[in-house]
Amino acid sequence: MTEFLGRINDGAQVWADAMTRACLIGGAAILLAWCVTRMFPRLPAKARDWIWRIAYLKLLVALIWVAPIELPLLPASTTMSEPQSKIVSDMANSVLSGLAIPGSSFGQASPGVELRDDSLPMVAFSFSTIILAVWCAGVGVCSLAIGRNWFATCAVCQRAQPVTDPQITDIVTELWRRIGVVRGPSMRRCDVAVSPQLVGVFRPAIILPATLPTDVLSYADVRMIIAHELAHWRRRDLWWNWLPALAHVLFFFHPAVWLAHREWRLAREIACDEAAIGLGGVKTANYGQMLLNVVQHCRITATPSFFSVGVSHSFQTLSRRIIAMQSTVPLSQSAHRTITTLLFVGAVVVLIPWRLVAQETDFRVPEKVDGTLVTEKVVFQANDAVDVAELPPATQLPGRLYVQCSLQQKNVEAGPKVKQNLVIEINPNTGEWKTITQSGHSVRVSPDGSSLVFERPSLNFEVGADRNAEIWMCDVRTGVNARRVVAGVGGRPIWSPDGLELVCSDGQTNEEDKKETPEKPVWNVVTWKFSHDGGEKTKLPIPSEDFVEDWSPDGQWFVTSSDRHAPYGRGYQIYLMRTDGTEQRRLTEGQGLNVYVRFSPDGARVLFLHQEKGKNSVRTIELVTGKETVLIEDDGLRRVNFACWSPGGEHLVILREDWERNEKGKRHRGSNAKPRLAILDLETKDLREIALPGAEVQWLGHVDWK
Question: Angle at Cα 181 formed by Cα 268 and Cα 170, nearest 5°?
């Protein structure tokens, strides 16, 4: 049941994102159409009609077309030190584990992402789900109204009888001949028809009230009425009526949709008026008098229908139609061609989602991003771990590992000695280690490998201060020259690719975190950027539910873990976005928790930890294709946790530990978890565990490899 509710909430969030996007983009298109038609009152009625059609189409396209087409027209980025794979993102439509947060528990870091039970917690209906339910009810009501309208139109058609008046028959034949058709819509009369109208998509018919002609409306007026309805038929207005019908059902709450419908109907009627005047060869004054007579004779109008089109509906629209007829100016063929070309180009620009991106440099970029990001999931079968002594001599691994830990040193004269909260440097080939500094949390090494940045508790914490946290830095080689970079900010510091700036997401829980089942995100996050040598910090426009996890090698993107989706505080999704918070793209879907995200050295993939129903796995996602690969996962009681790329991206370092089972058979982290690091070769799939000479590891935190 919990999983089912979670899937409903996730689906509702996807719907909410799509609907929000469509309302904003479609509403802007409708507003643009209204401005254009008002700014150019002498625009031909056909052009005005097409403008409103395009606006309606944009509303629906924005709802279903997620991935924009990218146009590489911007200058290529020149900030990369070497060719990097370009990260391509799409539009749409979300960060960090609440159980292993960047700024939690100073003095020691969270040992990992852990759930207290192998099952997910109960999930309440999210706000998006409630809104979705209300929307479904509104769609149902609107659908019933349209259905009732459909049946009413069908009832009129069933009661209608063929026209036998020879004068009307002659009029119809003449008009058919004028428009160049042998057979057009049939002519019928009906005693319940209150206004002349064209009905029927597949078997069109012009239905006249049984009282026509009358003392007010002559046969000449009937001829103009039929000419107007034939104009509707030639323009296929009944087919186009399905467009506003669908928009009104899906966006019944949107005021711009109602504005568009009123303006579109008016533009359509004006276009038919122009066509009818030309087809009938009548004077504008006579045609206007006919419209007045129809409105006067048919004062009781039918409910506006999407399944019929008529000559006139009200005095309010009639005045604008008559004014439009009087101000109509004939256009030359060249003017018609120019307007048609402009409409076509405008339709292409408006309807097709597109985005300007940087031009390619000296590396290839796939042509398009798949709209569905996680398109394929592959399980990478890692070989069982072996001891270092059993491995044949191999190529030396580059760089050093830097990890926060707690150690118990062996072979000391005074007996085993426990050293807590150290940051140590490890040789990935031999396991040899040395202490760099103490009291460092969430360690990250600068791109040039010279400086270590970390979080530590403030030594001069002021009562009433918001945060008992500071960002510190020290020399990697010696651990000396430790200095405070910025105060009052906690979380995981992230280096910019050029090593000149740092970003840190400072998150604190809100009142929702106290609830057993939070109904909203539990995090209030502020993302700060500041210089590596200190100075003023700048607040970045990153969503308040997102923690920045890493900075792309080309400096253009952040990857975040987000608490935007239920179950709040436990189910985190990964997002890709520009460093200014724009062009957000969700990378993960479904249940579970996705955290500890790192860009690959070439920027083409992200590495992360996934947890679902108490089971951990280390995975990657290719940013272009969306292919998700499970690299390694829990094997019984052997647990996997944090992972990090090697400098070249050919290996991973993974945190592993052994769990126990309690008397009820549930897994838990015992006192003898034996936390350790393992090196995974992504080509050979060999997994090699690292032993630290002269030390027994009590606890391991975040690791970096430079």
Answer: 95
For helices 255-280 and 315-326, what crossing angle results, to 10°? Answer: 50
Q: Is 177 left (phi over 0), alpha (psi -120 to 50) or beta?
A: alpha
Average pLDDT, the chain: 79
Percent of the chain with pLDDT over 90: 23
Nearest-angstrom CA–CA distance, 474 and 483: 6
Q: Where in 4-91 does DSSP place strands (E)?
A: 69-74
CB-CB contact of 102 with 442 (8 Å): yes
Residue partners of 576: CB distance under 8 A and separation at least 6: 87, 89, 557, 558, 559, 560, 584, 585, 587, 606, 623
Task: List the beta strands (DSSP E) in 532-626.
Answer: 534-540, 546-551, 557-562, 573-578, 585-586, 593-599, 605-612, 615-622
Task: Look at the block and give the residue holding tokens 């793209």.
Answer: 585
Nearest to 613 by CA among 113, 186, 237: 113
pLDDT score of 630 more than 80:
yes
**491 has a pLDDT exceeding 50:** yes
**C-alpha span between 703 and 428 (Å, rounded):** 12
Burial 235-274 (b: 16+ CB within 10 A, else e): bebbebbebbbebbbbbbebebbeebbebbbbbbbbbbbb
Contacts of 602 (CB under 8 A, 6+ apart): 84, 85, 553, 649
Q: What is the pLDDT of residues 115-171, one digit of tens each?
A: 333 333 444 677 888 899 999 999 999 999 888 888 888 888 888 888 888 888 888
- What distance in Å separates the CA atoms of residue 567 and residue 522, rounded to the nearest whole number? 10
Residues 453 and 499 sit within 8 Å (Cβ to Cβ): no
- Per-residue pLDDT of 359-414, as tens digits, reads 544 433 334 344 434 445 667 666 666 544 444 445 689 999 999 888 887 765 65
Per the listing, tokens 């139609």 go with 321
Closest CA relative to residue 103, chosen from 705, 519, 702:
702
Q: CB neighbours (10 Å) of residue 705? A: 23
